[in-house]
Specification:
Layout: H1 2-28, H2 35-65, H3 70-74, H4 77-101, H5 104-108, H6 117-145
Helix pairs in contact: 1-2, 1-6, 2-4, 4-6
Length: about 150
């Protein structure tokens, strides 16, 4: 019982951190990046990757070893939707991560990265999309926890 409660706590904390990190990235991208904001965005993106990985690992630990059991979760439409949405968020996050990593050379030289206006808009749009999908994941979690959509 304690293991299930701690796993749930860690899972929820990681989800909040993930959402918060994306919000920080979005705020830092309000304007084209400066040297300082670009470095912060790179750090936030690293935290994002670590957090997303841990969130997935803890989530699957919960499915397989605590709570209602794997059979319940894998027969739940909201759970399946949650996993698919999480995978979609991961796929969308590849583009911003690659763009941010591309800034390393300029940052190492002590310069702010050059980000074209169209690329800047695309980065912000992708982060907005990720945040929206994370909100849908939260809805799926609430439905799943209440047994709605069990096949």
């Amino acid at each position: 019982m304690l293991t299930a409660a701690l796993a749930a706590f860690v899972h929820h904390a990681l989800a909040f951190i993930l959402f918060g990190v994306l919000m920080v990235e979005l705020v830092l991208l309000r304007e084209p990046p400066t040297l300082s904001t670009a470095r912060s965005i790179l750090r936030m993106d690293a935290v994002y990757g670590i957090c997303a990985t841990l969130l997935l690992l803890v989530g699957f630990f919960r499915v397989l070893h605590t709570e209602k059991g794997a059979a319940y979760y894998f027969s739940s439409a909201p759970f399946i939707a949650k996993i698919c949405l999480f995978a979609l968020v991961g796929l969308i996050s590849i583009y911003p991560t690659l763009q941010f990593r591309g800034w390393r050379k300029a940052l190492a030289a002590g310069h702010a990265p050059v980000v074209e206006p169209a690329q800047h808009r695309r980065l912000k749009t992708m982060i907005h999309t990720e945040l929206t999908l994370l909100a849908l994941i939260m809805l799926c979690a609430a439905l799943m926890a209440r047994g709605i959509g069990v096949l």
